[in-house]
Every structure is written in structure tokens, then in C-alpha cells.
Amino acid sequence: MSQLITIEDLIKIDENTYEIPASYRSDMRVPARVFMNQAMYEDIKGDRSLEQLVNVATLPGIQKYAFAMPDVHQGYGFPIGGVAAFAIEEGGIISPGGLGYDINCGIRLLDVQMTRSEIKPYLDKLATRIFHKVPSGVGKGGNLDFKSHDLDRILSHGAHQMVKIGFGNESDIENCEENGRMDFADPELISEHAKKRGADQIGTLGSGNHFLEIQYVDQIYDEKVAQAFGLFKDQVTIMIHCGSRGLGHQVCTDYLRIMMGKVSQWGIELPDRELVYAPFKSPEAQNYFCAMAAAANFAWANRHMIGHWVREAFQEVISPKMQIRTMYDVSHNIGKIEKHEIDGVIKEVIMHRKGATRAFAPGRPEVPAQYRDVGQPVLIPGTMGTASYVLVGTQESMGIAFGSTCHGAGRRLSRAAAKKQVRGSQLRNELEDQGIIIRSNSDPGLAEEAPLAYKDIDNVISVVQGAGLANKVVRLRPLAVIKGD
Fold first, then answer.
1. 62 CB contacts (<8 Å, ≥6 apart)?
2. Average pLDDT over every residue of 245-272
3. Buried/exposed 298-312: b ≥16 CB within 10 Å, e otherwise
4. Which phi and psi angles does 91 have, rounded to 5°?
5. What angle do CA 255, 75, 456 make, to 5 degrees?
6. Partner residues linked to 341 by β-bridges
7. Paired strand residues for 352
8. Which residues contact 120 (CB under 8 A, 6 or more apart)?
9. Are 175 and 239 within 8 A, CB to CB?
10. How far apart are the C-alpha atoms of 420 and 99, rounded to whole Å?
11. b/e per residue 444-455 (b: at least 16 CB within 10 A)
């Protein structure tokens, strides 16, 4: 039965950290930790996100805490912004609702050796060219339509396959989480329906909160790390936010159905049907994990291909000699097998990050060699007309939340509520009055993603840094926004 969690139920650890003790509900195995301040509580007190977090704290094998990042809001199963580690050798589980429908939704940041003033004469034409080269919108197909055997290679090899067939380059892969490929992916575990949904969606942006922005470096907070990341004041960057499109959604749907059919056989009592799971060592869990990895590979190939179209657009509009570098690519909505020190013991866990970003410390082998001395780049987008941030993972973060942080500003209004309060055409005019170019076929789509629909990104980042989850490096401001409907 749903139970409203109030601020009185939370223990204040510090200005940026609150806790729901394990004594709050008899079935909790660990406490729940929420990284937020008082203003953020006001944004979530009317949804089910904290109740969902308590449900996560009841799952078998969970370690230390169930975490909610500063962008937390109600999701499916896990709250969006939910993080949990499940020890594989202690009965740990995997939950499709804990990884999300849009498997490996993520952010790719490209950088350009140009400044804001240098790109200004080209900006209008460049935004239009990118808008036409990168298909966007609900169910929108792209310029590529892969046959079954070609799609299977992409599902197996991710971004590597795109380079092999002539798109992008090796450096795009080097600065990508997992190098753009999970090796144990198995396309045979993905349904034909899922493959059909994804066959023509490589290189497409999607809809909703997915976007492509041309930005510039507005402020530098850590000069040393910014230099290591190759970023400088007023530099032009391009941020790409998208995932595995219809293919990933269908993979999640398929395996939710499979696991739900096994619940009674396994003797599982669920606190919420959306939180259905499988013991990680079961065949069903292993099949889902390998299918999830294949869908993640599809998402990396998708962002890689969009990056290729963007590079081409710059070369067509400005100069054939334009160099566009992939600075980094981070994943949200993904499960990873990782090793973490827990109470003095190194344990292998299946990490669930649902609308959350990995933020690994300097020295971790998972961090690309180019950045290993300073730590993993963390890419956190804001909303249209506001700001986005590049942060860096720290050693402190590893001990706080398994090297995890938020993935964005986090919604505070539903899409329907946003459309009731904002007219898309008016928002378009307001943004263009600020000098931000908008390319979108849908005014209602713009209204759904209006800045007032999201938490204050600057406040979110303040909590991230204050809680020790990651450190600020640079702030990015938008120059042009490309969105689907």
C-alpha cells in the first residue's frame, strides 16, 4: 500500500544528504539515502519517488544504501535518479525497471577548436543543416536502414561496428564509456520485434527530453582539469542526448514480461509489480543482461552516428578541414558488473544506475587513459535556455555512492502539466530573444521541455558538489537547440 513519505520521516545527515532509516518499514534491508536540499524536497513531495526508493531498499543482495540522486523524480520501478549495488555472491538481483526502458540513454559531448565569436556567423545555417541531417521525433527513422545480419553486428560490437563500416573514427571510441561496446552482448536474445523497431533508427535523436545543442564554455571552475579534458573558455561544444530508441524500449518490455511470468515460481513477493526482478545467476537474468548489453551497444552506435552527422554538417557549412573531437560519452539507464570496496571487502556487484551517471575516480582502469590522472568526465545537461555542466569523478565519490551522480536537472512537472503552463510558440520566442536558435517542428514538444518543468540545474549541481558526488569543471551555455517532437 502506498504511504506518503514526509520530511519528518527523513533524517538530515547534512545540508545535502537525507536518510530514510531501515526501521521506516519492516521489509527494508538497508537505509535509503537521498541527496537533496529543502528546495528539492518541495519538487518531489507530491510524487512516488521516495516510496519507490524505499521499495528498492527491500531487494535481495542490496549493499549499503538505496540511493536517490539530486535529480530524483518518479519513474518506473526505480525512481529516476535511483542507484543501487547488488552483490552477486549474496543473492543479488537485476531488475529491468531498475535500468529503465531507454537502455543506455546517455550524453555525448563533442568539442570544436572554435570560439563562440568565431562560430557566430555560421550558427543559423549550421543549426538548420544539423536539423536536416539528424532525424528527430517520435518513431522517426533515419538515413540508414540495416538488414538483420548488419544490425546483429551493431548489437554485438556497438560503435566499433560503425567505425568499421566507415563512420566516425577510433578516437570517438577511445573517449566513450566501455569504449562504446559491451563484449558479452548477444543479439540472439533480442526479439525480432525489437530489432524491427530499431532497424532504421541508428543516427536518430528521438523525442521528449532528447536533444542536440550547440553550446559554448561559459565558465571554468577547475583550470587544471579543464585543460586535461581539452576545454577552454568560450570554446564551442556540441551535446547529444539520446539512447536506444524503440529497440531498447522493446527489450525492457520483453524481459519485464518474461520475469513477471516467473515471480510465483521463484516465490518472490514484490513491493511493487514494476519492480519485478530476477536472481542475477538465473538464466532469465543472464539472458536479460546480455540483451541489455546489446541494446546498450545499439545506443552507443546511435550517438556515434549522430556525432558523425554533426561532424559532416560542420565540414559542409564551415570548412572540410573542421576537426570535431568526441570529448566523452556517458551512459544512463544501464547495468554494469563492477568491483567496489564495501566495509573493507572488495565485492563484485551488479550496479543499477537509473537516470544516473557513473563518476569514477582518478586511477580507475575504466577511465580512458587520456583522463585517468584526473578522473572520469561527468556530463550533466540542463534544460533549454539554462546551462549544462562538465564535472569530474573523485575518490570521495567512490566511497559515497559507488562512484555515481545525477544525469540531469530532473523533472518537477509532468509533460502534461508543463504544456498547461507554457505555450511552445511563446517559449520559442523567449529563447530566440535570448539569442538561442531553436530548430524543432513541434511547439507542444518545446513546451513539454520548458525550463520551468525541471529543477534548477545550478541548485542540482550545488548539491552534487556539496555532497561529494563529483566536482565542477566547466559550465556550458546553449547557442542553438535541435529537438524532435
1. 29, 30, 56, 84, 85, 86, 92
2. 96
3. bbbbbbbbbbbbbbb
4. 80, 25
5. 145
6. 346
7. 84, 335
8. none
9. no
10. 30
11. ebbbbbbbebbb
φ, ψ for residue 334, nearest 5 deg: -150, 150
Average pLDDT over residues 235-239: 98
- Please name which of 203, 115, 222 lies closest in space to residue 159, comparing C-alpha atoms: 203
pTM of the model: 0.95
Q: Exposure string (b/e) for 218-245, b if CB count within 10 Å is 16 or more?
A: eebbbeebbebbbbeeebbbbbbbbbbb
What is the β-pairing status of strands 32-35 and 66-73?
parallel
**Hunting for cell 570529448 — which residue is that?**
327
Question: 95: which residues sit within 8 A by CB, 6+ positions away?
Answer: 59, 77, 78, 275, 276, 277, 278, 352
**β-pair type (356-358, 345-354):** unpaired
Would you state the torsion angle of the CA atoms of residues 338, 339, 341, 343, taken in this order, to the nearest 10 degrees?
A: 80
**CB-based contact 471:376 (threshold 8 Å):** no
Residue 258 CB contacts under 8 Å (≥ 6 apart), including other chains: 284, 287, 288
Q: Is 407 known to be catalytic?
A: yes
Provide the grid cell at 412. Answer: 518537477
Closest CA to 206 of 328, 327, 106, 116: 106
DSSP alpha helices (H): ranges in 140-230? 148-157, 159-164, 170-174, 192-198, 223-229
**Residue 3 confidence class, pLDDT cut points 50, 70, 90:** low
d(C-alpha 7, C-alpha 19), whole Å: 10
| Cα separation, 239 vs 112, whole angstroms | 12
pLDDT tens string 155-209: 999 999 999 999 999 999 999 999 999 999 999 999 999 999 999 999 999 777 8
